[in-house]
Write a structure and sequence with these properties.
By secondary structure, the protein is α/β, with parallel strands linked by helices. Helix content is 25%, strand content 24%. The strands form eight sheets. Strands 12-27-28-29-25-26-13 form a seven-stranded mixed β-sheet, with helices on one face. The chain is elongated, with a radius of gyration of 31 Å. The structure holds adenosine-5'-triphosphate and magnesium ion (2 copies). Monomer.
């Protein structure tokens, strides 16, 4: 039973344990590059690695793969930590690849001494031209057979800052005719005169990804290093580098690959998301339209909704496109359990209940959340003048319209049955007000015969004199195409949806005054909303997280 529900990554670990790998030595890492904010794709990798840590009671490091000072920043380090914590995971240690710069340098010196690395003084174009093709061997660099002394001297001077960026590189001396192009003397170091967010100007040579990643895993004694499929071909190089440095008594990290997750109608690439931010298409990395963890959080997603989504899509060996509606489904499902219900009207139409007394102080009892184990209630003010949604009234409609029409009845949620008597119009014929009468004996929960009378429709409403005006931000998909970055010859920015944000006024029952930033609500019959950090004491701002699929039947 248990066996069957394991994913292929768990099978790899189980097989290793069966073959005698010491369970105490299991260790994982999540290795983001701090060159942007984490996105929903990263959530898969986070849940995979930290989930394995929980399952096997093994440490998981948060490792920053910070080897490219041109793109990395402290702001991103901070944001990544915040997002991993918010998802509910605890790392064992925070590590940085930059912690290992000295060790990597020392190892590289050993490589040179052992004839396994050389300084190449060609341009990157020349090096690229010599790579060959997968079916034809590459050409040796004229510098490939430099003496150990010359290589040691040049490498030291590269480190000392004697050369311009791009003038020399250190290459591993492996095999220029390997069928794996990555094995054709890969670059280990490049010169880059750029300050690093942690090591500042200590270094002007920076190690390449392939040279850094496996060695960092080894230093941290990570047993299983999971990465996405595009690194499958890198595995041979990962192992080659490890073989040169590792002590057989230590854990030999194992790289294994899983499929990247792609979400429809958005982009999951930090580099491309950065363009949306830089070009002002969104208002920052945490814009609620962004597929970043921080954007989803601000939009009103809960950690559980994201984790449940990730669990549902699972870990795969092949890439495929996941429809964004599946993510929305999980938001709805989790918020249905957690979000208190309140009433809000977003497109108001004034209703005057002509036979209701003026200046009363009546309240109706409203259930906070029918999903709660112990039901709680609040008092919502009712009055002679209320707002309902414009679309909930028609002068005339067929029998399938279960809302308010002239001569017809509806129940106001938790309150009375009203009947529409007259539509008041402006000069242009637009309905600006509806006059109704109510049945004073029909109050919900009052126990009278009338209160139990069945009418087809139930509408949400707010008392005009008590309602709070708020700003509501409604979002649509950020891109009009399912895969905006997979259109040959077109830039993904061509598919930005120009109408992805709509700002409107809303009227909400007064209990909302106590809401705090981040609080979630279900606006009944409309959807899930949460309080945006842009809110002030004067005005609350709500983000629409997701709409309700079904309006209630009661
Ligand atoms: P990006 O292109 O967005 O920068 P990346 O892979 O370069 O993605 P990293 O910071 O290196 O980003 O990612 C950290 C970890 O998350 C890596 O192990 C990476 O493979 C994984 N990861 C990144 N994007 C996805 C995705 N879409 N689906 C699953 N895992 C991902
Ligand atoms: Mg990366
Ligand atoms: Mg990247």
């Amino acid at each position: 039973e248990e066996e069957k529900s394991l994913n292929f990554i768990e099978h790899i670990i189980e097989d290793d344990l069966k073959e005698g790998f010491d369970k105490e030595k299991l260790r994982f890492r999540f290795p983001p590059e701090p060159n942007g904010y984490l996105h929903i794709g990263h959530a898969s990798s986070i849940c995979l690695n930290f989930g394995l840590g929980e399952k096997y009671d093994a440490p998981v490091n948060l490792r920053f793969d910070d080897t490219n000072p041109a793109k990395e920043e402290q702001e991103y380090v901070d944001a990544i930590k915040r997002d991993v914590e918010w998802l509910g995971y605890k790392w064992s240690e925070v590590r940085y690849a930059s912690d290992y710069f000295q060790q990597l340098f020392d190892w590289a010196v050993e490589f040179i001494k052992n004839g396994k690395a050389y300084v190449d003084s060609q341009t990157s174009e020349e090096i690229a031209a010599q790579k060959g093709t997968p079916t034809t061997p590459g050409t040796d660099s004229p510098y490939r057979n430099r003496s150990v002394e010359e290589n040691l001297d040049l490498f030291q001077r590269m480190k000392n800052g004697e050369f311009e960026s791009g003038t020399h590189v250190l290459r591993a001396k492996i095999d220029m005719s390997s069928s794996n192009m990555l094995m054709r003397d890969p670059i280990m170091y490049r010169i880059l005169h750029k300050a690093h967010h942690r090591t500042n100007t200590d270094w002007c040579i920076y190690p390449m990804y392939d040279w850094t990643h496996g060695e960092s895993d080894y230093i941290e004694q990570v047993s299983h290093s999971f990465c996405t499929l595009e690194f499958a071909m890198h595995r041979e190089l990962y192992n080659w580098f490890l073989e040169q440095v590792s002590n057989p008594n230590q854990v030999q990290p194992k790289q294994r690959e899983f499929a990247r997750r792609n979400l429809s109608h958005t982009i999951v690439s930090k580099r491309k998301l950065l363009r949306l931010v830089e070009e002002g298409i969104v208002n920052g990395w945490d814009d609620p339209r962004m597929p970043t963890i921080s954007g989803l959080r601000r939009r009103g997603y809960t950690p559980e909704s994201i984790k449940n989504f990730v669990k549902t899509i699972g870990i795969a060996k092949r890439e495929n496109l996941i429809d964004v509606s599946l993510l929305e489904f999980h938001a709805r499902e989790d918020l249905n359990k957690k979000a208190p219900r309140i009433m809000a009207v977003l497109d108001p139409l004034k209703v005057v209940i002509t036979n209701y007394p003026e200046n009363t102080d009546e309240y109706v009892d409203s259930e906070n959340n029918p999903e709660d184990e112990v039901l709680t209630y609040r008092k919502v003010p009712f009055s002679r003048e209320i707002y309902i949604e414009k679309e909930d009234f028609r002068e005339e409609a067929n029998r399938k319209f279960f809302r308010l029409k002239l001569g017809g009845e509806v129940r106001l949620k938790n309150a009375y049955i009203i009947k529409a008597e007259k539509a008041i119009k402006d000069e242009d014929g637009n309905i600006i007000e509806v006059h109704c009468t109510y049945d004073p004996l029909s109050k919900s929960g009052s126990g009278t015969e009338e209160s139990k009378r069945k009418v087809k429709g139930t509408l949400h409403w707010v008392s005009i004199k008590d309602a709070k005006e708020v700003e509501v931000r409604e979002y649509d998909r950020l891109f009009t195409e399912a895969e905006p970055d997979r259109h040959e010859g077109k830039d993904f920015l061509e598919f930005v949806n120009p109408d992805s944000l709509r700002v409107i006024k809303g009227y909400v029952e007064p209990s909302v005054e106590e809401a705090k930033i981040g609080d979630h609500f279900q606006f009944q019959r409309i959807g899930y909303f949460n309080v945006d950090p842009d809110s002030t004491n004067e005005k609350l701002v709500f983000n629409k997280t997701v709409g309700l699929r079904d309006s209630w039947a009661k």
